[in-house]
């Protein structure tokens, strides 16, 4: 016969044990939930001790883009505001553009700064429907890139547009006998296509002949450049084209081997071997972009900040490149340039 007292005691002990187990499960679940919350906050831009997170993204590494990135980062970090700056480089892998930007969206950054058109358009697509401010840098034609107008209220930035007449006038003032120019650019870069369309329209208006060749990646550069040389061009022109800017040594070897000067859209491209430019100051672009970010962090809406362009273009020349192609400029013409690279190779870029 079972002793009822023992049975009751055993059942009571079992009940107590089960209750303790349930309490422990609830405690563990609560602890896990708290851990997840703190983990999420640690990844969030605004939850890191109240800091503001700004993400700067560039499609690839070359002198112009790096200069913009470094200037923005320095300006923000020295602003006196509680800003954390993160940077990312897609290494010219277009399939990574959206992935990088999407990761920053998931992270919850407060402001994203895409450098150059392809990253800016990726940021617009990824952040569509959110209130996250997008402040672009070095987008040549924001209108053509779809970064203005309806649906772009959270987007602003600074363009690196150069009027086409500035570029052609530079070439003709340096080479008065130039009859035909070769336009070399990357077909997939919206900024390059827009800039070259402007150049072609201006050339047509003044009766200057041109040939054009496009590339899809740096491996096409040698063939494209040689094809233009075979057509009897007197000068090359390449705008602020990111793909070609990353491969200037290849470009200059081919062009200068044929005695053809390369005119560029950026001073950094001249520093990397180009002959001359009427270009924008990329440090100044970085400073203007940083100021926009600071204004937005301070409470100003992107829609209250119209996108900007630079008013002043500066003429730079590479005297080492001039020696390579055997070009001697009249003193009066040379005085209109800032010498960026001396004949002995001394480089003043960034000074």
Detailed description of the structure:
This protein has about 350 residues and is α/β, with parallel strands linked by helices. α3 crosses α4. β1, α2 and β2 form a beta-alpha-beta unit. Helix content is about 45%, strand content about 20%. The N terminus is likely disordered. About 40% of the residues are buried.
Q: State the end-to-end CA separation.
A: 101 Å
Number of helices: 13
Rg computed from alpha carbons, rounded to a whole number of angstroms: 28 Å
Total beta strand runs: 12
Shape: globular
Low-confidence stretches: 1-48
Structural class: alpha/beta
Reported for the largest beta sheet, the result is: 7 strands, mixed
Residues in helix, %: 40-55%
CATH superfamily heading of the largest domain: Response regulator
CATH architecture designation of the largest domain: 3-Layer(aba) Sandwich
CATH fold-level label of the largest domain: Rossmann fold
Kindly report the spatial arrangement of strands forming the biggest sheet: 7-6-8-9-10-11-12
Strand content: 15-25%
Average pLDDT for all residues: 86
Write the element-wise H/E pattern from the N-terminal end onward.
HEHEHEHEEHEHEHEHHEHEHEHHE
Total domain units: 2
- Given this structure, which CATH class of the largest domain is correct? Alpha Beta
């Amino acid at each position: 016969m079972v002793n009822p007292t023992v049975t009751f005691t055993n059942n009571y002990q079992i009940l107590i044990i089960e209750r303790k187990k349930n309490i422990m499960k609830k405690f563990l679940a609560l602890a896990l939930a708290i851990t997840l919350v703190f983990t999420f906050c640690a990844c969030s831009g605004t939850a890191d001790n109240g800091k503001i997170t700004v993400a700067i993204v560039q499609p690839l590494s070359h002198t112009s883009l790096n200069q913009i990135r470094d200037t923005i980062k320095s300006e923000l970090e020295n602003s006196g505001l509680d800003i954390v700056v993160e940077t990312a480089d897609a290494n010219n892998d277009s399939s990574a553009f959206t992935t990088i930007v999407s990761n920053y969206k998931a992270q919850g950054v407060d402001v994203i700064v895409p450098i150059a058109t392809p990253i800016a358009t990726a940021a617009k697509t990824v952040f569509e429907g959110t209130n996250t401010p997008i402040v672009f840098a070095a987008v040549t034609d924001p209108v053509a890139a779809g970064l203005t107008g309806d649906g772009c209220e959270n987007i602003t930035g600074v363009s690196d547009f150069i009027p086409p007449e500035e570029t052609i006038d530079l070439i003709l003032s340096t080479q008065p006998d130039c009859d035909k120019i070769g336009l070399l650019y990357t077909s997939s870069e919206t900024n390059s296509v827009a800039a070259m369309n402007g150049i072609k329209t201006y050339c047509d208006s003044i009766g200057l002949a041109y040939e054009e060749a496009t590339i899809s990646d740096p491996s096409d550069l040698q063939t494209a450049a040689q094809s233009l040389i075979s057509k009897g061009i007197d000068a090359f022109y390449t705008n602020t084209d990111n793909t070609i800017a990353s491969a200037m040594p290849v470009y200059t070897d081919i062009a200068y081997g044929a005695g053809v000067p390369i005119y560029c859209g950026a001073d950094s491209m001249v520093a990397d071997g180009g002959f001359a430019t009427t270009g924008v100051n990329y440090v100044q672009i970085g400073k203007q972009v940083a100021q926009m970010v600071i204004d937005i962090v301070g409470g100003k809406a992107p829609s209250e900040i119209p996108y900007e362009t630079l008013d002043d273009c500066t003429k730079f020349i590479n005297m080492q490149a001039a020696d390579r192609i055997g070009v001697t400029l009249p003193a009066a013409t040379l005085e209109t340039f800032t010498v960026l690279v001396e004949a002995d190779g001394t480089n003043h870029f960034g000074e």
